[in-house]
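Try it yourself: sequence plus cobalamin, in.
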Amino acid sequence: MSNFEALNEAIIKADINKAVEETKKAMDAGTEVQDILDNGLIAPMDEVGANFASGKMFVPQMLRSAKAMQECMALIQPHFQEQDISFKGKVIIGTVKGDLHDIGKNLVSMMMEGAGLTIIDLGVDIAADVFVEKVKETGADILAMSALLSTTMPGMKETIEALQSAGLRDKVKVMIGGAPVSDSFAGQIGADAYAPDAGTAVIEAKKLLGLS
Ligand code: B12
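Structure, out:
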């Protein structure tokens, strides 16, 4: 693992220029993009979350840190393209109703796209009926839902129930993720898969599509 101290600090302090400069430096030095992502960009967000939880940081600061992270993610995104794209599948992705967190969802989209899947990103604050309508309209293979708030997690269950009512549940695989979500929650609400991070999300998507 490389030393990401300066990059971590730039994300925590929301110094976008410095964060971008450090990301470029790491890329120029030939550091693995996965390493930059996991240890340079995602790791400091945990500290941002902890600072927020303990009252050391407020929403506008948290948002600026998130922006800094997103700018850096945009730089490394093109390098996630897999060389051996050997399968195709269509994935609808979105953050559930009432929830505006999209960094993790965007990361999952990015990785899945890099793995050769077609992504239909509905954005944030997506109601169950909108997910269902889009599944019907596009014939997607997978519906992927993200939730970062414990209060919005029930939106995942509602969506699965709405798929059932619309007679679409057996036509689409459902995968879920987000910090408060777990494998056991996935089991409870009848989702087909859960993944704790974007890399595992790609592995699980491939499994759901019968490709690995
Ligand atoms: C950035 C941030 C924000 C930003 C969001 C900006 C944006 N564009 O997304 C802003 C400032 C807007 C924000 C607002 C709020 N936030 Co906030 N936020 C965060 C923070 C610091 C980081 C989240 C993040 O982006 N992490 C980095 C990404 C890469 O990780 P991730 O989202 O977990 O995603 C990974 C996995 O979970 C997984 N994954 C994610 N989605 C999916 C989907 C699928 C299908 C799969 C398979 C996998 C998967 O893969 C991803 C990549 O590896 C977290 C703390 C934390 N460390 O999580 C708090 C946190 C989530 N927020 C929190 C809170 C309370 C709020 C607010 C209510 C604050 C307030 N009082 O206003 C509001 C809610 C607004 C709303 N309605 O959504 C709490 C939630 C507590 C809870 N359990 O309910 C947290 C945990 C902070 C805390 N410790 O208290 N927030």
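One thing you can check immediately is this: Residues 42, 45-46, 48-49, 52-53, 59, 62-63, 66, 98-105, 107-108, 144-146, 148-151, 175-180, 195, 197-198, 201 surround cobalamin (CB under 6 Å).
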